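## Example record

The block below lists the input lines for one assembly entry, exactly as stored, with component labels intact.
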Amino acid sequence: MLEIKNLHATVDGKDILRGINLTINPGEVHAIMGPNGSGKSTLSYVLAGRDGYEVTQGDILFNGRSLLGLEPEERAREGLFLAFQYPVEIPGVANATFLRSAVNAVRKHKGLADMDAMTFLKTAKAKMKQLQMDEKFLQRAVNMGFSGGEKKRNEVFQMLMLEPTLAILDETDSGLDIDALKIVAEGVNALRSPERSALVITHYQRLLDYIVPDVVHVLAGGRIIKTGGKELALELEAKGYADVIAADAA
Amino acid sequence: MAANAQTIETVEGLAGDYKYGFVTDIESELLPKGLSEDTVRFISAKKEEPQWMLDWRLRAYKAWLRMAKEKGEPGWAKVSYPEIDFQDIHYYSAPKKKTLKSLDEVDPELLATYEKLGIPLKEREILAGVAVDAVFDSVSVATTFKGKLKDMGIIFCSMSEAVREHPELVQKYLGSVVPVTDNFYATLNSAVFSDGSFVYVPPGVRCPMELSTYFRINEAKTGQFERTLLICDKGAYVSYLEGCTAPMRDENQLHAAVVELVCMEDAEIRYATVQNWYPGDKNGKGGIYNFVTKRGACRGARSKISWTQVETGSAITWKYPSVILQGDDSVGEFYSVAVANNAQQADTGTKMIHMGKNTKSTIISKGISAGRAQNTYRGLVRVMPGAAGARNYSQCDSLLIGDRCGGHTVPYIEVKNRSAKVEHEATTSRISDDQLFYCRQRGLSEEDAVSTIVNGFCKEVLQKLPMEFAVEAQKLLGVSLEGSVG
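Predicted structure tokens for the full assembly:
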């Protein structure tokens, strides 16, 4: 599914990622944890192809094909979805309009006909119910005046509509209370299947109680310094990052 | 009539010596360049106008000469262009010759734009100047609707026809809102106006359709000095659509139109414009100078005039659709989207003149600048001493794309009545990288992302357009801003 090979990347000429190796197989959920400034968000932007995030070495293969030459929208249409840490507001554009354009852009890429308005509405309402979102959010402008939690829920709603093969969740848990966290986690779990994978970026172990990962990585200083099973998250929660980082340095 | 025939002879005689002469064949006729009293007489004669119309034009011509000598072109707008040589312009041309035989001969770039805008094939041919069969659907549609309107007492015809068939109405109202000497370009228009539309809706009649929707194909060739007069009598209603989303090429660089609206007691006029004249190339070469005077008078109590405009074309736009609120409780509205990309310059806005008691006006302006373009909102809200209880709300938002363009807001507020309430809000924002990346991460192309964000920005104005126009206008905004990012 996703193969990251010796990935180096810079932002404004500063080295942020310094040789990341990571393989995610179909059906797997990987978690990336790490202290502030370790390069977690940079990794998600590099994977999604954001301008200004320059890959200087290495490669990213998605379903066997390099992503490096692809525009962000091409990556998205290939099935890569990024749930933003800070979802962006777009004044005047109804959530429904925005999402339907997105769904149809992806469908077009797959050679499918546009999803008609009725089917879209029916599907959207079903997904919103699953996330306990009010249908009114369809008519509200994208993320405008949404609370932090509502924005995150809206990200997961978009993800459910777009059905990506690889979902990257960048600190989707931040700003969520425990109830919202459970609902969001259920949404993510609903997408789990042998064909789909996820990369969950988080500060806290809490989210991983609900989205149980197959593999946990520790990112520090732009490299993955430790990889383990889900118990690694618990260990980090108990002891903090300092020990792991010290062990790596030694 | 004898005098007219003589004038034609004189001018045609002159043309014999003129270097380029008349380009004359069955379909087209072009008056040599230059402006003189004879030019005015020639135009009037060609249109078989009555003496009073000719006199009116001549009065305007003389006034224009004075203006040209004393002050010249107005210089207060934030636009710059080389001085216009008014002797280097053709002031009369009969319907354009259609020289192309099929769409295969049309500039592929233009065709691609039509495709993107989703313009029907037949319409594309007409817009591109391809000769089409004399009989096509919309002509018969137009005829049917004209018959229906006539039964209701609504007059809807060309200005030339109105001068001949309804002289009493034209004499009464022409120049009553935009006086002959109003401004340099309006005065020029008054002297040499080519043609335009005339509408009269009798008392109590509600015009059952959006006027000109069915006719715009046929009336796409408006000429460079368009003159429109629209009168809505007591308790009547009309909605009028002008323009076309398709980019129109025109050999004439200078366009100076005048539109006058007269709105009586309890009447309502909605006037929507989509302007997409050729903006020139990326470097600012070519393109139309669009210097337009549009004004409506709310003459009666409780009358209402609403202007909605989507301005995306022209190299230079100079245009301030205004409302004179004379009647008590009358209402004026101005909803505008102005896009300036590449080297385009737009100086546009409105004037709301409050005279009657409890008059209300609303101004919503959305300016979008990209490339090296300069986009200025210029608006006047004037409350006269007698306008007790007058209210105005103005909102002017500018959206900038890239870092080489400019958005400017110049509000003029003059209040001479203490009970008036005037509000002005203005914002300036940019399309952020965050917004673009967010849209693209969801699968939208960069162009679709810009178009989506811009349409969201303009939503309040686009909502005011009649449905079918709104959809076209949305696409138009996207197409106008192509290549503005990255």
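Residues 51-70 of chain B form the longest helix (20 residues). The radius of gyration of chain B is 22 Å.
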